[in-house]
Protein: Nephrocystin 3-like N-terminal domain-containing protein
Amino acid sequence: LIWLHGMAGVGKSAVVFTMAERMRSLKVTNHMKIKKWLAGTFFFSCKHTEHCMTGYFFVTLAYQLGCNFPSIWEDLNRAIHKNPALLDPNKSLCDQMEGLFLRPLQKL
Structure:
């Protein structure tokens, strides 16, 4: 998890986007049997209101997690079918984190 904070205009987004792009193509050694380091990306922006809602944080990361690690798609689908409210941006972040992120990550 990488979290940067600082004054507007100092280049936080540029640094993080560059790191994310490099990690997207990064491969791990063969003995680890993992091909990707990047689970997903998300950013908050005051200029783009659609990125300001924390309610989309875990939903977005869960989607990217499923795209990057197809072995957990079924777990994500099962969690959503069992509790469709997990996709509601007004749902508790704790519930979203548990159902859409932590449980699927445990499978990895």
In short: DSSP finds four helices and no strands in the chain. Residues 9 and 51 are 17 Å apart (CA to CA).
